[in-house]
Amino acid sequence: MRVGVAADQSGLVLKDSVLDWLREQKHLTVDYGAHPDCPADDFLHHALAMAWAVSRGTVERGILFSESGIGGAIVANKIRGVRAGFTHDPESLRHATAYNHMNVFSLWSAGLELGGAIDLLRVFLSCPYVDDAATRRRLARIAALVNRFSFA
Q: Distance (Å, rounded) from C-alpha 13 to C-alpha 8?
C-alpha cells in the first residue's frame, strides 16, 4: 500500500520510527514532513500536502502525527475526498475505516509510544473498506455535503 505520513514537530520521532516500520512491512511511503532541520515548519502545510495526496490518489492512506492528534484530522478533513479520524480504540478505528472509509488516521504523538501506534496502524492499514448498500449510501451523503461545503 502507498502510505503518506506527516507530523508536527512533536511527532517527528514517532513519525520517523513509524516510517521505518512501514518500510519493513513493505509499504511504499511518502514523508510529507515535518523535518528536524526546520523547527519553524508549520504543520498545516505538511498535513495539507498529505491530505491532497490522499485526495488525488497519490497515496492510498495517510497517517498524521500531531501533539493532540486532533489538529491533523481537522486540517485533513478540509480537503475533498479525505475522511480523517482520530481514536485510541482499535474497535472504533476498525469501524471507522471499514464503514466510513476513513483514509487518514491522525494520532496523538504526545502520549503514544511506538508499540501502541503500531498496534493501531496494523488495524488501520489492514482493514478493508466495506462495500454494501448502506455504506455506499452513507458515503454518497458525505460526498454530497463535502461537495457543497469544502474546497477541492
A: 10
122/23 Cα distance (integer angstroms): 13
CA distance 137 to 121: 27
pTM metric for this prediction: 0.94
pLDDT digits (tens, 9 = 90+) for 86-115: 999 999 999 999 999 999 999 998 889 999
DSSP string, 119-140: HHHHHHHHPPPP-SHHHHHHHH
Class of domain 2-149: alpha beta
**In the chain, at which residue ranges do the beta strands (DSSP E only) sit?**
2-7, 28-31, 61-66, 84-86, 104-108
